[in-house]
Structure formats: C-alpha cells, structure tokens
C-alpha cells in the first residue's frame, strides 16, 4: 500500500481519506488516509486492538465510519451498505457459524455459488466470471483442497478444513477483492501451511487484503505490509522495508531484530 495521492482509479482497489471510527469516545481507527493498490496480497499487521478488524469492517461496510470517506476503484462507497459493497465484488470471510453444519461440504459451496447465479450476491460481476453451477462448485472445492471431503458433513470437518470451507464460501462468487481477517487463527502448522498455499493459489487476478499475526507467514506472502498502531498507520512497505523499519521494530517487531 502507498499513501500516494495521485493514483488513478485503475491502480487501486480502496482509497480512504481521513477514515475514523469511534466507539463511545474511544477512537479505534484514527483518520486513516490510505491507498490500497490493485493486485497482490496486501497485509495489515499491528498489535492487538490496533484497529485492524475495525478498518476491515469499515471497508466492507459492516460498520459506518464516524468520519472520512472510502472509494472502491473510482466509486465512492462511504454510504453503501455491506450487501451493496458485496455486489461490487468486495467479499470478506464470514464466521464459521455461516457454514451449514448439517449439510455436506459440496452442498455448502453449491449454495454459495448458487446465490451468485441467482443474482443475489454479485449482480454487477460479468457473467463470464460465473460459468456452470456444478463446474464452478467443483472448481471452488478444488481451489480450497476439499474435493475429497465433498461428501462429508461440514460439522464433521477438522477446524482447519472448516476454515478452508469458509474461504471457499468467500471465493464462490469469484470476487476480485477478498478480505481475510486472521484466516490462520487456531490452525496447526500443517493446516497453516496448506492454507498459505491456498491463499497463494487464489491470489492471481485478485486483490487479497489480509490481517494476520503469524509474522513468518506475513513476511513470506505479502506484496506490501501496512502496520497499524493505535488506530493509525505507522508504516507501509514491502516485507523487507517493514523488517528494516526502526519505528516498526521499536513498536512491534522487536523479536525480528
Ligand atoms: N463494537 C465495539 N465497541 C466498542 N469498542 C470496540 C468495538 N469494536 C472494537 N472496539 C475496540 O476498538 C479497538 C480496536 O479493535 P479491533 O478489533 O479493530 O483491533 P484489532 O487490531 O483487530 O485487534 P486484534 O489483533 O486483537 O484482532 C479495541 O480497543 C477494541 O476494544
Ligand atoms: Mg482483529
């Protein structure tokens, strides 16, 4: 991400200006002006409570800002609701509770794909992105590595497989922009490795916004890293630049020195 002001609409997915969110007097996101370029894995890191999830909620429309403005490509979306932003192709991971436990993995993915076919989720996406229902369902299952588990009831999956199914439900609509908030939380090393592979597999042709605490993973897969601290942007740069940034080391990455 860069803080450049001159980007044209095709260069970025999101642009924020003075974006602020307060919770009864407490400022969780504090006047963030940021441009998030198109493509790549754009990661946000920062200590607990830095405002990362709140920032995601502002981008996806789950929360309205207290102040400031947001653009998606060339369109101002500040006052659009979450479902309207989803229709523009902004998808975010849901909680596991959005998985239908009593249905099979295949049925869960098919329902998510079908929502797109019915025009409920991504009305504005070109039809060529959708394809045939069964083909698209199988493609998603393959992408998330759950083809072999297609017939299993979702509630019987391991935690890691449920998180991958969750990502499958997000990519079912083939969204150009994905927001993933701590997709590796609670995963075993093997599950983490598989999910990192998955994120890399689904990233070409998309922009992935990632919030993640696993710093080794962050350094390995991020195109750029934005460091949040107390609701504001402390630093932006490539993994190498962030690793070398003294303010970041002092505030957050001391263990990397
Ligand atoms: N709905 C809310 N009501 C009141 N305070 C909130 C609310 N949501 C977040 N906060 C507060 O805003 C601050 C930022 O929270 P946020 O969840 O955005 O942090 P985070 O960077 O995602 O942290 P973590 O790494 O722990 O997930 C925290 O102090 C949190 O307690
Ligand atoms: Mg969070």
> Can you summarize the main beta sheet?
6 strands, mixed
**What is the CATH superfamily of the largest domain?**
P-loop containing nucleotide triphosphate hydrolases
The average pLDDT score comes to 87
Helix-strand pattern: EEEHEEHEHHHEHEHEEHH
What is the overall silhouette?
A: globular
Quickly give the CATH architecture of the largest domain: 3-Layer(aba) Sandwich
Instruction: Classify the oligomer.
Output: single chain
Count of structural domains: 2
Radius of gyration: 18 Å
The first-level CATH class name of the largest domain: Alpha Beta
Portion in strands? 15-25%
CATH topology of the largest domain: Rossmann fold
Total number of beta strands: 10
**Unreliable parts:** 1-5
Helix/strand structural class: alpha/beta
Number of helices: 9
Strand order of the largest sheet: 6-7-8-3-9-10
Bound molecules: adenosine-5'-triphosphate, magnesium ion
N- to C-terminal separation? 23 Å
Q: Helical proportion?
A: 25-40%
